[in-house]
């Protein structure tokens, strides 16, 4: 019968205890490192979680509201000496009580704004600059002046007109903008008023002839012929 060596048992117990202790030390060390890393990353994870929770449209609104109006004309585009101007006719559809073949008729409404000086109303527009596309410039000017964002659609056209300020010729490029969101705060809130009107009212209050031509193009594009005859 083999004789159990107490010395061997003691040595085995010693090595086992050391192994467990070393493992615990390594585990605790790893946990401290992990906790330290999490503490560093927590602010970053918080910011990222905010982006994932917010909708893309809300993120766009937050990003846009942080900007201010552009000033100066260092990047202004010119063509043949004509200043290049871009703008939008913001529009939406409003349900009415009128019906056509059992379906509710939707009235086309456009958003007009007041000029910084002078009477009347107009559509948002401004200079097209070299570091942006025409569509981006149209969206930017509309947000800055009217405080709305949405989908910029195919261009309505281009009209040449003289500036009321100095008589110099400008090219005005206008786009329809299907409004998705109306902001409570925007860069020129303190300088302009905005108002939703139907197209007949817009024809009356819009002071610039070339903008009224752009409005007629929008009406031809968005309203069926039968509804246009009723205007």
Question: What report would you give on this structure?
Answer:
The protein is α+β, with helices and mostly antiparallel strands. Helix content is 42%, strand content 28%. It has 6 helices and 8 strands; from the N terminus they run ααββββαββββααα. The termini are far apart.
Rough outline: globular
What's the β-strand tally?
A: 8
What is the SS-derived class?
alpha+beta
Q: How much helix is in the residues?
A: 40-55%
* Terminal CA distance: 115 Å
Counted by DSSP, the helix tally is 6
Mean pLDDT: 78
SSE order, one letter for each helix or strand: HHEEEEHEEEEHHH
- From the alpha carbons, calculate the radius of gyration and give it in angstroms: 33 Å
**% residues in beta strands:** 25-35%
Layout of strands and helices, then pairs:
Elements: H1 6-53, H2 56-65, E1 78-79, E2 82-100, E3 103-113, E4 125-127, H3 134-146, E5 148-152, E6 157-162, E7 169-182, E8 194-198, H4 199-205, H5 209-222, H6 225-228
Parallel strand pairs: 2-7
Antiparallel strand pairs: 1-2, 2-3, 2-4, 3-8, 5-7, 6-7
Short account of what is shown:
One of its GO terms (cellular component) is cytoplasm. The chain is α+β, with helices and mostly antiparallel strands and 231 residues long.
Key features?
single chain, 231 residues, alpha+beta, 8-stranded mixed sheet, 6 helices, 42% helix, 28% strand, disordered N terminus, metal-binding, Nudix hydrolase domain-containing protein
């Amino acid at each position: 019968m083999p004789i159990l060596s107490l010395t061997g048992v003691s040595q085995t117990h010693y090595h086992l205890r050391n192994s467990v202790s070393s493992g615990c030390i390594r585990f605790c060390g790893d946990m401290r490192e992990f906790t330290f890393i999490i503490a560093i990353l927590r602010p970053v994870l918080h910011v990222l979680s905010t982006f994932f929770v917010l909708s893309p449209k809300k993120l766009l609104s937050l990003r846009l509201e942080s900007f201010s109006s552009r000033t100066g004309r260092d990047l202004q585009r010119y063509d043949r000496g004509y200043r290049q101007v871009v703008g939008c006719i913001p529009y939406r559809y409003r349900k009415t009580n009128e019906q056509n073949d059992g379906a509710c008729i939707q009235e086309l409404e456009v958003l007009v704004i007041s000029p910084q000086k002078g009477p009347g109303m107009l559509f948002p527009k401004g200079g097209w600059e070299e570091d942006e596309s025409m569509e981006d410039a149209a969206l930017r000017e509309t947000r800055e002046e009217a405080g709305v964002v949405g989908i910029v659609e195919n261009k309505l056209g281009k009209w040449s007109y003289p500036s009321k300020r100095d008589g110099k010729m400008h090219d005005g490029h206008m786009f329809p903008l299907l409004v998705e969101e109306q902001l409570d705060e925007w860069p020129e809130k303190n300088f302009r008023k905005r108002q939703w009107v139907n197209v007949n009212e817009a024809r009356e209050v819009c002071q610039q002839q070339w903008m009224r031509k752009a409005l007629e193009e929008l009406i031809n594009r968005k309203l069926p012929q039968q509804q246009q005859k009723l205007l």
